[in-house]
Design brief:
The protein has 625 residues and is an alpha/beta fold. The protein contains 20 helices and 28 strands. A hairpin with a 2-residue loop joins β13 and β14.
Length: 625
């Protein structure tokens, strides 16, 4: 409000919840009623309050006083364990429903498959509780919207088919409303006693949802457990994040075990030192330390990480002061993916300020020879048809790892587990490297760089394979013929980009029927002893080529999207035919800020990058703003 943002960049809409209330106050009231024995039956829908509720409420103890407890959810979790009935829930992809976007626009959810385990949706369960005749989710959702369509506008069938086709229900966006800031709002904020410079009143504790498993609801998803966190690159667990100065003050190193004490509660976890993290503060992520998450996420004594919810209170759910940190003297190993991947003094991420770029657009290459002019012992090849290439804009990449998970889903990439990651054997065909830059290690610049296979024109891997399992195709792709691979790993040793993955064990489950439904039938499921890598989603290229041949035309620009490109929310990845002078990828590669990784090696990678630019405010840089 003070910045004048309301009505310009910020708009308010009426709450979309049917009965908007203070959720924390409502939960506290429920717990008080349960403690007093005033709740005869409690139905918990798609939630896990025994695990996620603030620790001071002690929801589990209060739940024991309820005479009939019913849990409805995807998993038999911590809450379901204390309930009399557990009703299996249909997954979001198995049931009809509807939801609203941030601006109030409604959309109708259509199922992709029939329920695998005979579950029931929230709509069906509520219909039974309301003593209505049993109907399916489809009938309930369709019936609701039939009552919303005004008679005489259009037929309901036309409305329904249009909404399903378009993906949104037209005209349902909320109308912005005027709102005034409460006069006492600033006064409420001022209740926190400010800490003076140099004064330490305990440490500050900050609670954050986990970047991959959120609040713990996705803990049993192996893809998400093995997805590296964007800044820490930690997998299969959480850590106590602290600054460099705080680590020095407590004489701590990475993986040192510490005990966090807060309001007479305590929890133990390993330390991870974060450049740029505020001093005298600790950040912990929620969602770990599960005891009933499942075979992957933690079950019984097989837990992952520590439970930060056990410290969280209802009056300070996100941050507070007064935390004590004690050094235990032992270590707990952390599975991270970038201990063995570092810049090692090389300029892998090219950066410049906007002013520097305008002064010298060719700051990357200078007056040296172009990559195509570097001498090579490799023979030259002509590509008369298509020649595929990729350009990745480092200005747009936010390190979210959506591309990594999309690649894993598309190409049947297995997970290797925490021990496999600690051994450096993760199987991801695509990695998001995180790099720090700057002389001030306490406040560095942070860069992200996606690293798939470079598909080198002069590929070092091809020359050393004794069985010609890794070869060049007629369109410039660096291919793997899995049936030929005998597992020498010479190709991986000779790859300067370290983008090849080796199946040390039989990671893929080819026996469980339901797991087979997860595999992409267009991609081979690899077995033990095989080297694998990014293929530029060759199965999608082949599909587009077949359609183009049937229509007797060339493949159009933009007709082939790789999985990583399709999933990228910022459109940082562009793929296409570099033989087509009008293609988007060709235009990007012609820009002066386009460069190849480790170009001095003369490998001529088909994957290139657009340099990262910064446009700093001089006053901010100098600290005078």
């Amino acid at each position: 409000a003070a910045r004048g943002s309301i009505g310009n960049t910020v708009e308010y809409i009426a709450p979309v919840a049917a009965n908007p209330v203070d959720q924390t106050a409502s939960l506290r009231e429920l717990v008080q009623d349960m403690q007093a024995g005033q709740v005869d039956m409690l139905v918990i829908l798609s939630d896990n309050p025994v695990y996620t509720a603030p620790a001071d409420l002690d929801f589990a103890a209060a739940l024991e006083n309820v005479e009939l407890r019913i849990h409805h959810g995807l998993y038999h979790n911590e809450t379901a364990r204390l309930c009399h009935w557990h009703i299996p829930q249909t997954h979001e992809l198995e049931s009809w429903s509807d939801l609203r976007a941030f601006d109030g626009t409604a959309t109708i959810i259509q199922p992709l498959i029939a329920p695998l385990y005979d579950g029931h949706s929230v709509h069906e369960l509520l219909a039974v509780l309301l003593e209505q005749p049993f109907t399916t989710s489809y009938e309930i959702v369709r019936g609701y919207w039939a009552n919303q369509v005004q008679a005489g506008d259009v037929s309901f069938d036309t409305f329904w088919e249009t909404a399903l086709h378009d993906g949104v229900v037209a005209g349902t966006a909320a109308t912005p409303v005027e709102a005034e800031l409460r006069a006492d709002f600033a006064g409420q904020l001022a209740q926190v006693t400010p800490v003076q410079p140099g004064e330490i009143v305990g440490l500050e504790i900050n609670f954050r949802p986990d970047p991959t498993i959120w609040d713990g609801r996705y803990a049993n998803n192996g893809w998400l457990q093995e997805t590296p966190k964007p800044l820490t690159t930690i997998t299969w667990g959480n850590a106590v994040l602290i600054s460099i100065n705080t680590a020095e003050r407590f004489n701590l190193a990475n993986e040192d075990l510490v005990e966090l004490r807060y309001r007479e509660r305590s929890v133990r976890g390993p330390v991870w030192i974060m450049p740029g993290h505020p001093d005298d503060a600790v950040t912990v992520h929620l969602g770990y330390g599960r005891s009933q998450a499942g075979l992957v996420g933690g079950d019984g004594d097989n837990t992952l990480g520590f439970n930060a919810y056990s410290l969280r209170t209802s009056d300070a759910p996100w941050f507070d002061t007064g935390l004590e940190l004690l050094r235990i003297g032992t270590q707990e190993p952390i599975a991270t993916t970038q201990n063995h991947f570092a810049m090692e003094g090389r300029k892998l991420v090219e950066t410049a300020t906007l002013e520097e770029f305008r002064a010298n657009p060719h700051f990357i290459h200078g007056d040296g020879p172009a990559e195509e002019e570097l001498p090579s012992l490799y023979p030259e090849f002509e590509y008369p048809g298509n020649a595929w290439g990729m350009a990745i804009d480092l200005n747009a990449c936010i390190g979210c790892n959506a591309c990594l998970v999309a690649c894993q889903a598309e190409n049947n990439i297995p997970i290797v587990g925490k021990e496999g990651v600690k051994a450096g054997r993760e199987m991801h065909w695509l990695k998001i490297d995180r790099y720090y830059e700057g002389e001030d290690v306490y406040n560095p610049a942070v860069y992200f760089q996606p690293r798939p296979c470079m598909h080198c024109e002069k590929a070092p891997c091809e020359l050393v394979c004794p069985v010609a399992a890794t070869v060049h195709d007629s369109e410039g792709l660096n291919m793997m013929i899995y049936n030929r691979c005998v597992g020498t790993r010479y190709c991986s040793n000779n790859c300067p980009y370290k983008v090849r993955r080796f199946n040390f064990f039989q990671y893929a489950n080819q026996d469980t029927p339901v797991i087979q439904l997860m595999h992409n039938p267009d991609v081979t499921v690899r077995t033990r002893g095989v080297m694998e890598k990014c293929t530029y989603c060759v199965q999608r290229i082949s599909s587009a080529r077949i359609e183009a041949k049937k229509e007797e035309r060339p493949i159009r620009d933009g007709e082939v999207w790789t999985a990583c490109q399709q999933a990228c929310p910022t459109r940082a990845i562009t793929f296409g035919d570099i033989n087509n002078p009008d293609s988007r990828v060709t235009q990007l590669k012609a820009l002066p800020q386009n460069y190849g990784l480790l170009r001095e090696l003369g490998t001529r990678p088909r994957t290139s990058y657009l340099a990262r630019f910064r446009n700093p405010n001089p006053a901010v840089e100098e600290g005078t703003a």
